[in-house]
Protein backbone atom coordinates (compact mmCIF):
# COMPACT_ATOMS: atom_id res chain seq x y z
CA UNK A 1 0.00 0.00 0.00
CA UNK A 2 2.83 2.36 0.94
CA UNK A 3 4.63 1.51 -2.30
CA UNK A 4 1.46 2.29 -4.28
CA UNK A 5 0.98 5.64 -2.51
CA UNK A 6 4.64 6.49 -3.22
CA UNK A 7 4.14 5.76 -6.92
CA UNK A 8 0.99 7.95 -6.99
CA UNK A 9 2.83 10.78 -5.24
CA UNK A 10 5.72 10.51 -7.69
CA UNK A 11 3.31 10.61 -10.62
CA UNK A 12 1.61 13.69 -9.18
CA UNK A 13 4.99 15.39 -8.82
CA UNK A 14 5.79 14.64 -12.46
CA UNK A 15 2.45 16.10 -13.56
CA UNK A 16 3.02 19.17 -11.41
CA UNK A 17 6.53 19.61 -12.82
CA UNK A 18 5.20 19.31 -16.37
CA UNK A 19 2.50 21.90 -15.64
CA UNK A 20 5.11 24.31 -14.28
CA UNK A 21 7.31 23.67 -17.32
CA UNK A 22 4.41 24.51 -19.60
CA UNK A 23 3.78 27.66 -17.61
CA UNK A 24 7.35 28.98 -17.86
CA UNK A 25 10.45 27.85 -19.72
CA UNK A 26 13.78 28.78 -18.12
CA UNK A 27 17.28 28.66 -19.60
CA UNK A 28 20.51 29.90 -18.04
CA UNK A 29 23.36 30.40 -20.48
CA UNK A 30 26.63 28.60 -19.63
CA UNK A 31 28.43 31.94 -19.83
CA UNK A 32 27.37 35.54 -19.39
CA UNK A 33 26.04 36.92 -22.67
CA UNK A 34 26.89 40.25 -24.24
CA UNK A 35 24.20 42.80 -24.95
CA UNK A 36 22.25 41.99 -28.09
CA UNK A 37 23.39 43.57 -31.32
CA UNK A 38 21.31 46.60 -32.24
CA UNK A 39 18.39 45.71 -34.48
CA UNK A 40 18.31 46.44 -38.19
CA UNK A 41 16.87 49.89 -38.81
CA UNK A 42 17.56 50.41 -42.52
CA UNK A 43 18.01 48.10 -45.48
CA UNK A 44 20.10 48.74 -48.63
CA UNK A 45 19.95 46.79 -51.90
CA UNK A 46 20.95 47.16 -55.56
CA UNK A 47 19.13 45.92 -58.65
CA UNK A 48 20.24 45.43 -62.27
CA UNK A 49 16.94 43.85 -63.33
CA UNK A 50 13.28 44.56 -63.81
CA UNK A 51 10.15 42.49 -64.08
CA UNK A 52 6.57 43.06 -65.14
CA UNK A 53 3.41 41.01 -65.55
CA UNK A 54 1.75 41.00 -68.98
CA UNK A 55 -1.31 39.29 -70.38
CA UNK A 56 -1.40 36.70 -73.12
CA UNK A 57 -3.08 39.33 -75.29
CA UNK A 58 -0.24 41.82 -74.71
CA UNK A 59 2.41 39.20 -75.40
CA UNK A 60 0.76 38.33 -78.72
CA UNK A 61 0.54 42.00 -79.62
CA UNK A 62 4.07 42.85 -78.49
CA UNK A 63 5.60 43.96 -75.17
CA UNK A 64 8.41 46.54 -74.97
CA UNK A 65 11.61 45.34 -73.32
CA UNK A 66 14.49 47.62 -72.33
CA UNK A 67 18.03 46.26 -72.71
CA UNK A 68 21.18 48.40 -72.70
CA UNK A 69 24.15 46.03 -72.77
CA UNK A 70 25.37 42.86 -74.44
CA UNK A 71 25.30 40.81 -71.23
CA UNK A 72 21.56 40.39 -70.87
CA UNK A 73 19.04 37.67 -70.11
CA UNK A 74 15.27 37.68 -70.62
CA UNK A 75 13.11 35.14 -68.83
CA UNK A 76 9.41 34.71 -69.69
CA UNK A 77 7.34 32.57 -67.33
CA UNK A 78 3.64 31.62 -67.15
CA UNK A 79 1.99 32.67 -63.86
CA UNK A 80 -1.06 30.98 -62.37
CA UNK A 81 -4.13 33.16 -61.88
CA UNK A 82 -7.10 32.81 -59.57
CA UNK A 83 -10.66 33.37 -60.73
CA UNK A 84 -13.84 32.56 -58.77
CA UNK A 85 -11.91 30.27 -56.44
CA UNK A 86 -10.28 28.30 -59.25
CA UNK A 87 -6.65 28.19 -60.31
CA UNK A 88 -5.88 28.63 -64.02
CA UNK A 89 -2.38 27.81 -65.25
CA UNK A 90 -1.38 29.39 -68.58
CA UNK A 91 0.03 27.49 -71.52
CA UNK A 92 3.76 26.88 -71.39
CA UNK A 93 5.71 29.04 -73.80
CA UNK A 94 7.29 27.74 -77.00
CA UNK A 95 10.68 29.29 -77.54
CA UNK A 96 10.53 29.02 -81.33
CA UNK A 97 7.32 31.11 -81.37
CA UNK A 98 8.99 34.12 -79.73
CA UNK A 99 10.53 36.98 -81.69
CA UNK A 100 11.95 40.42 -80.99
CA UNK A 101 11.51 43.44 -83.27
CA UNK A 102 12.60 47.06 -83.10
CA UNK A 103 10.26 50.05 -83.17
CA UNK A 104 10.22 49.86 -86.98
CA UNK A 105 9.05 46.21 -86.78
CA UNK A 106 12.40 44.96 -88.05
CA UNK A 107 13.27 41.58 -86.54
CA UNK A 108 16.25 41.69 -84.22
CA UNK A 109 18.72 38.85 -83.75
CA UNK A 110 18.15 36.89 -80.59
CA UNK A 111 19.79 33.88 -79.02
CA UNK A 112 17.75 31.11 -77.44
CA UNK A 113 19.34 30.47 -74.05
CA UNK A 114 17.11 27.77 -72.62
CA UNK A 115 13.84 26.04 -73.44
CA UNK A 116 11.43 24.91 -70.74
CA UNK A 117 13.20 21.60 -70.15
CA UNK A 118 16.59 23.28 -69.73
CA UNK A 119 15.14 25.94 -67.43
CA UNK A 120 13.57 23.22 -65.31
CA UNK A 121 16.92 21.46 -65.02
CA UNK A 122 18.41 24.79 -63.89
CA UNK A 123 15.87 25.09 -61.08
CA UNK A 124 13.11 27.06 -62.82
CA UNK A 125 10.17 24.68 -62.58
CA UNK A 126 7.57 27.30 -63.54
CA UNK A 127 7.56 26.56 -67.28
CA UNK A 128 9.72 29.56 -68.14
CA UNK A 129 11.99 30.01 -71.16
CA UNK A 130 15.09 32.16 -71.57
CA UNK A 131 16.62 34.20 -74.37
CA UNK A 132 19.22 36.86 -75.04
CA UNK A 133 19.13 39.85 -77.38
CA UNK A 134 21.95 40.00 -79.90
CA UNK A 135 21.53 43.66 -80.88
CA UNK A 136 21.21 46.42 -78.29
CA UNK A 137 19.35 49.62 -79.03
CA UNK A 138 17.62 50.35 -75.72
CA UNK A 139 14.14 49.23 -76.72
CA UNK A 140 12.65 46.25 -78.48
CA UNK A 141 9.27 44.57 -78.81
CA UNK A 142 8.94 40.99 -77.58
CA UNK A 143 6.04 39.02 -79.02
CA UNK A 144 4.83 35.51 -79.64
CA UNK A 145 2.90 33.88 -82.47
CA UNK A 146 1.68 31.20 -80.09
CA UNK A 147 -2.08 30.86 -79.49
CA UNK A 148 -2.27 32.09 -75.88
CA UNK A 149 -5.39 32.89 -73.90
CA UNK A 150 -5.91 36.65 -73.71
CA UNK A 151 -6.46 36.67 -69.94
CA UNK A 152 -3.51 34.50 -68.98
CA UNK A 153 -0.64 36.16 -67.14
CA UNK A 154 3.08 35.95 -67.92
CA UNK A 155 6.14 37.31 -66.14
CA UNK A 156 8.76 39.12 -68.24
CA UNK A 157 12.03 39.32 -66.30
CA UNK A 158 15.02 41.22 -67.75
CA UNK A 159 18.46 40.93 -66.11
CA UNK A 160 21.57 42.95 -67.06
CA UNK A 161 24.32 41.44 -64.95
CA UNK A 162 27.14 43.84 -64.06
CA UNK A 163 25.29 46.89 -65.39
CA UNK A 164 26.60 50.31 -64.41
CA UNK A 165 23.01 51.47 -64.23
CA UNK A 166 22.13 49.74 -60.97
CA UNK A 167 19.14 50.95 -59.00
CA UNK A 168 20.15 51.61 -55.40
CA UNK A 169 17.49 51.56 -52.70
CA UNK A 170 17.82 52.47 -49.03
CA UNK A 171 14.67 52.05 -46.99
CA UNK A 172 13.49 52.07 -43.40
CA UNK A 173 13.18 48.48 -42.12
CA UNK A 174 11.19 49.01 -38.93
CA UNK A 175 7.96 51.00 -39.14
CA UNK A 176 6.21 51.93 -35.89
CA UNK A 177 2.50 51.37 -35.47
CA UNK A 178 0.21 54.16 -36.76
CA UNK A 179 2.95 55.62 -39.00
CA UNK A 180 1.86 55.91 -42.62
CA UNK A 181 5.16 57.04 -44.16
CA UNK A 182 8.27 54.92 -44.68
CA UNK A 183 11.58 56.42 -45.81
CA UNK A 184 12.69 55.01 -49.17
CA UNK A 185 15.55 56.65 -51.07
CA UNK A 186 16.03 55.58 -54.69
CA UNK A 187 18.97 56.54 -56.91
CA UNK A 188 20.93 55.42 -59.96
CA UNK A 189 24.46 56.77 -59.75
CA UNK A 190 24.14 60.54 -59.42
CA UNK A 191 20.57 60.47 -60.70
CA UNK A 192 17.69 61.06 -58.32
CA UNK A 193 14.13 60.25 -59.27
CA UNK A 194 11.08 62.44 -59.47
CA UNK A 195 7.94 61.21 -57.76
CA UNK A 196 6.26 60.32 -61.05
CA UNK A 197 9.31 58.24 -62.13
CA UNK A 198 8.50 55.75 -59.36
CA UNK A 199 5.61 53.30 -59.17
CA UNK A 200 5.23 51.49 -55.86
CA UNK A 201 3.33 48.34 -54.97
CA UNK A 202 2.70 47.33 -51.36
CA UNK A 203 2.00 43.73 -50.44
CA UNK A 204 0.78 42.75 -46.97
CA UNK A 205 2.05 39.53 -45.33
CA UNK A 206 -1.19 37.80 -46.36
CA UNK A 207 -0.58 38.72 -50.02
CA UNK A 208 -3.17 41.52 -50.19
CA UNK A 209 -2.14 44.48 -52.37
CA UNK A 210 -2.56 47.83 -50.59
CA UNK A 211 -2.68 51.44 -51.79
CA UNK A 212 0.64 53.27 -51.65
CA UNK A 213 2.19 56.35 -53.25
CA UNK A 214 5.68 57.87 -53.52
CA UNK A 215 6.35 61.39 -52.28
CA UNK A 216 9.76 63.03 -51.91
CA UNK A 217 11.68 59.94 -50.89
CA UNK A 218 8.93 58.32 -48.85
CA UNK A 219 6.39 55.58 -49.40
CA UNK A 220 3.03 56.96 -48.27
CA UNK A 221 0.30 54.51 -47.26
CA UNK A 222 -3.32 55.46 -47.87
CA UNK A 223 -4.52 53.58 -44.78
CA UNK A 224 -2.80 52.51 -41.54
CA UNK A 225 -1.20 49.07 -41.70
CA UNK A 226 -2.88 46.32 -39.70
CA UNK A 227 -0.55 43.32 -39.34
CA UNK A 228 1.88 43.63 -36.43
CA UNK A 229 5.14 41.69 -36.46
CA UNK A 230 6.57 39.14 -38.85
CA UNK A 231 4.89 35.86 -37.84
CA UNK A 232 3.16 35.76 -41.24
CA UNK A 233 6.07 37.34 -43.09
CA UNK A 234 7.17 40.91 -43.79
CA UNK A 235 5.38 43.68 -45.61
CA UNK A 236 7.04 44.20 -48.99
CA UNK A 237 7.46 47.35 -51.06
CA UNK A 238 8.15 46.85 -54.74
CA UNK A 239 9.52 49.84 -56.63
CA UNK A 240 9.56 50.11 -60.43
CA UNK A 241 11.42 52.99 -62.08
CA UNK A 242 11.93 54.05 -65.69
CA UNK A 243 14.35 56.81 -66.62
CA UNK A 244 16.75 57.98 -69.33
CA UNK A 245 20.52 57.48 -69.00
CA UNK A 246 22.72 58.79 -71.85
CA UNK A 247 19.70 58.93 -74.13
CA UNK A 248 18.60 55.34 -73.46
CA UNK A 249 15.63 54.19 -71.41
CA UNK A 250 16.61 52.18 -68.35
CA UNK A 251 14.05 50.24 -66.37
CA UNK A 252 14.59 48.66 -62.94
CA UNK A 253 12.60 46.87 -60.23
CA UNK A 254 13.45 46.16 -56.60
CA UNK A 255 11.70 44.67 -53.57
CA UNK A 256 12.28 46.00 -50.06
CA UNK A 257 10.82 44.16 -47.04
CA UNK A 258 9.97 45.86 -43.75
CA UNK A 259 8.34 44.97 -40.46
CA UNK A 260 5.39 46.82 -38.94
CA UNK A 261 6.24 47.00 -35.24
CA UNK A 262 4.44 47.87 -32.02
CA UNK A 263 5.64 47.71 -28.41
CA UNK A 264 3.52 44.70 -27.49
CA UNK A 265 5.21 44.11 -24.11
CA UNK A 266 6.43 46.51 -21.40
CA UNK A 267 7.98 45.85 -18.00
CA UNK A 268 8.07 47.49 -14.58
CA UNK A 269 10.99 47.54 -12.18
CA UNK A 270 12.37 44.14 -11.28
CA UNK A 271 12.60 42.96 -7.66
CA UNK A 272 15.62 40.77 -6.92
CA UNK A 273 15.77 38.43 -3.94
CA UNK A 274 18.68 36.38 -2.59
CA UNK A 275 17.55 32.81 -1.91
CA UNK A 276 20.76 31.58 -0.31
CA UNK A 277 23.48 29.25 -1.59
CA UNK A 278 24.35 31.64 -4.47
CA UNK A 279 20.81 31.47 -5.84
CA UNK A 280 18.91 34.63 -6.82
CA UNK A 281 15.46 35.27 -8.20
CA UNK A 282 14.28 38.31 -10.14
CA UNK A 283 10.56 39.04 -10.26
CA UNK A 284 9.74 41.09 -13.37
CA UNK A 285 6.17 42.45 -13.77
CA UNK A 286 5.10 42.82 -17.41
CA UNK A 287 2.06 43.90 -19.38
CA UNK A 288 1.21 42.86 -22.95
CA UNK A 289 -1.19 44.25 -25.53
CA UNK A 290 -2.15 40.91 -27.11
CA UNK A 291 -2.19 37.31 -25.96
CA UNK A 292 0.84 35.30 -27.02
CA UNK A 293 4.13 33.77 -25.99
CA UNK A 294 6.68 36.24 -24.68
CA UNK A 295 10.23 36.03 -23.38
CA UNK A 296 12.74 38.04 -21.41
CA UNK A 297 16.51 37.75 -21.46
CA UNK A 298 18.60 39.61 -18.88
CA UNK A 299 21.94 39.51 -17.07
CA UNK A 300 22.12 39.72 -13.28
CA UNK A 301 24.79 42.12 -11.99
CA UNK A 302 26.20 42.98 -8.58
CA UNK A 303 28.99 45.12 -7.10
CA UNK A 304 32.57 43.87 -7.15
CA UNK A 305 35.22 44.39 -4.46
CA UNK A 306 36.22 47.76 -5.95
CA UNK A 307 32.64 48.95 -6.42
CA UNK A 308 32.55 48.09 -10.13
CA UNK A 309 29.46 46.42 -11.60
CA UNK A 310 30.04 42.72 -12.25
CA UNK A 311 28.00 40.57 -14.62
CA UNK A 312 27.08 37.32 -12.88
CA UNK A 313 24.76 35.22 -15.07
CA UNK A 314 22.40 35.50 -18.04
CA UNK A 315 18.97 33.87 -18.02
CA UNK A 316 16.12 33.69 -20.55
CA UNK A 317 12.53 32.92 -19.53
CA UNK A 318 9.50 32.42 -21.81
CA UNK A 319 5.80 31.87 -21.14
CA UNK A 320 2.29 32.49 -22.43
CA UNK A 321 0.91 35.85 -21.25
CA UNK A 322 -2.60 37.20 -21.59
CA UNK A 323 -2.57 40.66 -20.05
CA UNK A 324 -0.63 41.39 -16.85
CA UNK A 325 1.80 38.81 -15.53
CA UNK A 326 5.33 38.40 -14.27
CA UNK A 327 8.48 36.52 -15.20
CA UNK A 328 10.27 34.68 -12.39
CA UNK A 329 13.95 34.59 -13.35
CA UNK A 330 16.15 32.20 -11.33
CA UNK A 331 19.91 32.86 -11.38
CA UNK A 332 22.59 30.43 -10.22
CA UNK A 333 25.76 32.44 -9.54
CA UNK A 334 29.37 31.32 -9.18
CA UNK A 335 31.08 34.73 -8.84
CA UNK A 336 31.12 36.67 -5.59
CA UNK A 337 29.33 40.01 -5.59
CA UNK A 338 27.58 42.42 -3.25
CA UNK A 339 24.31 44.34 -3.33
CA UNK A 340 22.73 46.22 -4.94
CA UNK A 341 21.85 43.57 -7.54
CA UNK A 342 20.38 44.76 -10.84
CA UNK A 343 19.36 43.43 -14.25
CA UNK A 344 21.23 44.66 -17.32
CA UNK A 345 21.12 44.03 -21.09
CA UNK A 346 17.38 43.38 -20.88
CA UNK A 347 15.70 42.18 -24.07
CA UNK A 348 11.97 41.51 -24.32
CA UNK A 349 10.66 39.30 -27.13
CA UNK A 350 7.18 38.82 -28.55
CA UNK A 351 7.73 35.29 -29.84
CA UNK A 352 4.25 35.06 -31.36
CA UNK A 353 4.77 38.09 -33.59
CA UNK A 354 8.57 37.74 -33.86
CA UNK A 355 9.39 41.15 -32.38
CA UNK A 356 12.29 42.13 -30.10
CA UNK A 357 12.49 45.13 -27.81
CA UNK A 358 15.58 46.33 -25.93
CA UNK A 359 14.57 47.79 -22.59
CA UNK A 360 15.05 51.55 -22.63
CA UNK A 361 14.79 51.84 -26.46
From TrEMBL:
Signal peptide as annotated in the record: 1-21
Keywords: Signal
InterPro entries per the UniProt record, alphabetical: DUF4785_C, DUF4785_N
Boundaries of every DUF4785 domain copy: 22-160, 273-356
Domain of life, source organism: Bacteria
Protein name per its UniProtKB record: DUF4785 family protein
Lineage, top ranks: Bacteria, Pseudomonadati, Pseudomonadota, Gammaproteobacteria, Alteromonadales
Amino acid sequence: MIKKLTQIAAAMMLVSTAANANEQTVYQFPEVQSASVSQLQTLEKDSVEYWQHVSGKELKRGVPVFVNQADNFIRIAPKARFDSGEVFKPHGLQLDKLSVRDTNFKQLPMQAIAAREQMQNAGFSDGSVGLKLGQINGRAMLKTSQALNDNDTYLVHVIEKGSRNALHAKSQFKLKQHQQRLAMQLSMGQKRFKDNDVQLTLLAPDGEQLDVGYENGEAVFTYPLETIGAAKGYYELEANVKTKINGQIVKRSIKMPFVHSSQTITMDNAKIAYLGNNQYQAQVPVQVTDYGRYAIRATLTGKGTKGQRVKLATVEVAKQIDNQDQFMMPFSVTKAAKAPFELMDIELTDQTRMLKFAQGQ
